[in-house]
Amino acid sequence: MRRPVDGALFRRGGKGHKQLKALLGRLSVAAVVLLICTISLLTTIKTNSTSSYPSEIHLEELWGPAASGGWRPSSAPRFEWPPPPKETNGYLRVRCNGGLNQQRSAICNAVLAARIMNATLVLPDLDANSFWHDDSGFHGIYDVDHFIKSLRYDVRIVESIPEIRQNGKTKKTKAYQIRPPRDAPISWYTTEALVKMKKHGAIYLTPFSHRLAEEIDNPEYQRLRCRVNYHALRFKPHIMKLSNSIVSKLRAQGHFMAIHLRFEMDMLAFAGCFDVFNPEEQAILKKYRKENFAEKKLVYSERRAIGKCPLTPEEVGLVLHAMGFDNSTRIYLAAGELFGGERFMKPFDSLFPRLENHSTVDPAGELEENTRGLLGSAVDYMVCLLSDIFMPTYDGPSNFANNLMGHRLYYGFRTTVRPDRKALAPIFIDRENGKKAGFEEAVRRVMLRTNFGGPHKRVPPESFYTNSWPECFCQMDSKNPADLCPPNNVLQILESQLDNETVGDPESTQLNSTISNEKK
């Protein structure tokens, strides 16, 4: 006998109506997740059936650099690049907010902005109210003398705005404060910002994180960014000494891998990945998100299905194990405080027991005392840069991972294991649902389609700071003149131009053209 329909179930505003609405909502979320996973899995199968990717990963090759294809790093000017003139349009001050690597990108942009505006750059302010609450400042982290000297062919740099004498009195020049638009085009700097600079003598751009467009159709401007990032920004000697000490101890027993385990409260809260935690932990994450990020409805299952959640430590271990790394692999963990406690690390520990960090590399604690805040981030950065293999577990929007991948590319195509979280998501979800057959083979197929650190085309949303190819690379023999390496005497040419000091001087103009002529 058919059960009679309960009319109250459909009555607007009734309890049954609310239950039905909630049920339909859950079903729609499940349908979306199922659709995303199905599309991702079908794409994986289709790609694998038609590709020529190898079926095995050769670990011995990963411990060395990736194939360069004849490319080498080069950020020196290749075409006309006049020196900064004696007279500039004014002073440019910036406040670089965020953590160490967000500030690093901002410094690169500040140098480029000064070049574009023909301005004298004041040594950038590093935000003391950043994530680390560290007031080390530029002088405490970077080698200032090296920074200024390295960029002498590009911009004029001073440590502070000089005082001026007026009517017999010493007066400080106050910089006019402006909040620049995010990803501002070059035209904003050559118009609105430049007008204010000429009017006031100095401008102060704050905040300055992501305030200059990354994609600029001028290879020489992009190469300037690389000169700043990979040559001028050198950590202070004591930081380099600490970093080299850690690397030497790790290398004493052979190859080592560095992993940026981004399973920390701020990133988990930003990503909206709460469901793997208990109620108390979820409450902490939600509170942190409400206090620090814009309100947005985030559904964990949807976020995870599209690769927006950081890999858990267990997932990281499973990827490496599927690739063929065993329990003898030596791993250095660059990470802040792991959210969720030791229970999330146990599965990883069981697969890879040879884990190291600041404290384990130096049990006496000498290094541990010097590796906190921005300084600790700087040491981790150098250890990861110098490691044989680097693996980021969450590269968006992790400035640490993104900058490191770009630096390792420039440093000689050093191997980077970069998991495709979106392609891996349905494989992990199937495993959690009991479908473990073929798990490792499926993971290997995904990883074999990733780039392990060789030259590759930059495709949005990949950042220029993650991949500066081809602008900051060159070839000794190329049919494309734009890709040819600059002449060996390019530094002597730039030095001669700087000695002339005046743009437009006939000898200076002649030397500018020599850069191009030397290559023909």
Overview of the structural elements:
The protein is built from 20 helices and 15 strands. Strands 2, 3, 4, 5, 8 and 9 form a six-stranded parallel beta sheet that branches. By secondary structure, it is an alpha/beta fold. The termini are far apart. Mean pLDDT is 84; it is low at 1-18, 20-24, 29-52 and 502-520. Helices cover 45% and strands 9% of the residues.
Compile the SSE list and pairings.
Blueprint: H1 15-50, H2 59-62, E1 72-73, E2 91-96, H3 100-117, E3 120-122, E4 125-126, H4 137-141, H5 144-150, E5 156-158, E6 164-166, E7 169-171, E8 176-178, H6 186-200, E9 202-205, H7 219-232, H8 237-251, E10 257-260, H9 265-271, H10 279-292, H11 300-305, H12 313-323, E11 331-334, H13 346-351, E12 355-356, H14 358-361, H15 373-386, E13 389-392, H16 399-410, E14 415-416, H17 421-432, H18 439-448, E15 473-474, H19 490-500, H20 506-517
Helix pairs in contact: 1-17, 3-7, 5-7, 8-15, 9-10, 12-18, 15-16, 17-18, 19-20
Helix content: 40-55%
What is the distance, rounded to the nearest whole angstrom, between the alpha carbons of the first and last residues? 92 Å
Overall residue-averaged pLDDT value? 84
Major sheet characteristics: 6 strands, parallel
Number of helices: 20
- From the spread of the alpha carbons, the general shape counts as globular
Number of strands: 15
As residue ranges, the low-confidence spans are 1-18, 20-24, 29-52, 502-520
Helix-and-strand structural type: alpha/beta
Radius of gyration: 27 Å
Strand content: 5-15%
